Amino acid sequence: DTDAIKTVKDAVAAIDTVNATDAEKQALKAITDKCDALKKKIADTKAEIAAVTDGVGGYDNATVKSSDKDAIDALAARIDALLAGDNLTDTERASLTEIGKTVGDMLNKLSDIKKEIADVTEGFGAYDKKTVKSSDETDIEALIARIDALCATQNLTESERAALAELKETANGLLEKIAEVKAEIKATADGVEGYDKDTVTTDNKEQIEGFIDRVDTLLDGKNLTEDERKALEDTKKTAEDLIKQIEETASENKDVTTQIGALDKEKVTADDKENIEKLIDRVDGLLDGENLTEDERKALEDTKKAAEDLIKQIEYTAKENKDVTEKL
Predict the structure, then answer these.
(1) CA Rg value for the chain
(2) C-alpha distances out from residue 26 to 17, 38, 203, Å
(3) pLDDT at res. 324
(4) With a threshold of 0.70, does the pTM exceed it?
(5) Mean model confidence pLDDT for the chain
(6) What pLDDT does residue 1 have?
(7) Distance between CA atoms of 318 and 157, rounded to whole angstroms?
(8) How far apart are CA 252 and CA 289, in angstroms?
(9) Whole-angstrom Cα distance, residue 310 to residue 266?
């Protein structure tokens, strides 16, 4: 409309008002004033279009941040106000509509970033170092990947980036805890499996008891899955069976050693022979196995020899009695 307004104003200016009445002059002035007001409105509209266009041009979808939201919201409101009026050409309206879409895309981007930050933050809120389990590992790794994806963009403020870095550090702490528990489970299971019920000795008792203590510590915690808990209970049962075997061997060793040691070579009689032979059989049972330390084996062999000497003494005494009887 600029050319038409100029034409009207020029036409008014060309009128000879020498013979015009005051009313006619006033009417012409009103037309001129309106033309000026229309030109100002056009100029103001053009300036506003230029201002919002430049303003939106200062932002980019790849770098827009939450700290820009207020300014972008204000630009969106100014665009809406222009589009709501009737002072735009079709070309200007089309251009502002496209700019409005750009602004909408940036606001959507900010909303998506804000929601993603909130989602990963809430996601980690479900985990605690005291209760995290290996079954949580995949989900935690997925949340870390989402943090990395956020941090790889340029859409974060410094405070958001710092908060996400701290969140990732917490997440890595959770993964470290999971790894620590898994390693401890494996170490105790491998440790106990390193012993065999047929060969375990008293030398192994302290270490096996140590494994049981470590298993109990794991079972007392809340970082185990049900499968891990069951496997550890099986490991503990195996370890307790090994301890039971050690204690049974030690008890049997002590019992036969004590009984044989209580017999006096000078006092044994034929009535003791059967009992001593049974004790020797029990000693042989121990010596035939592999549950003795070298020192225990040597001591038990000495005990067996002492028992055999008692048998020899009994047999010698019996032979002497027989010889005397026959002579009489």
Answers:
(1) 50
(2) 11, 18, 122
(3) 82
(4) yes
(5) 92
(6) 60
(7) 104
(8) 12
(9) 9
User: What's the rounded Cα separation, in Å, for the pair 208 and 201?
Assistant: 10
Q: In the structure, what pLDDT confidence band is assigned to residue 309 with cuts at 50, 70 and 90?
A: very high
Q: Could you identify the residue written with the tokens 């013979």?
A: 19
**Rounded Cα distance, 68 and 65, in Å:** 5
Structure-token pair, residue 316: 């010698």
pLDDT greater than 80 at residue 19: no
Q: Residue 113 is which amino acid?
A: I
Instruction: Please report, for residues 13, 38, 44, the alpha-carbon distance to residue 6 in angstroms, rounded to integers and kept in the order given.
Output: 10, 10, 17
Output 254-257 pairs: Cβ under 8 A, ≥24 positions apart.
256/282, 256/283, 256/286, 256/300, 256/303, 257/299, 257/300, 257/303
The whole-angstrom separation of Cα 91 and Cα 75 is 19
> Crossing angle for the helix pair 205-220 and 158-193, nearest 10 degrees?
140
End-to-end Cα separation, the chain, in angstroms: 162
Task: Output the six-digit token pair for 183.
Answer: 């390693």
- Distance (Å, whole) CA 9 – CA 108: 47
Judge whether 290 and 200 are in contact, CB under 8 Å: no
Phi, psi of 263 (to 5 degrees): -85, 135
Tens digit of each residue's pLDDT (9 = 90 or more) over 143-172: 999 999 999 999 999 999 999 999 999 999
Residue 249 corresponds to which tokens in the numbers above? 């061997």
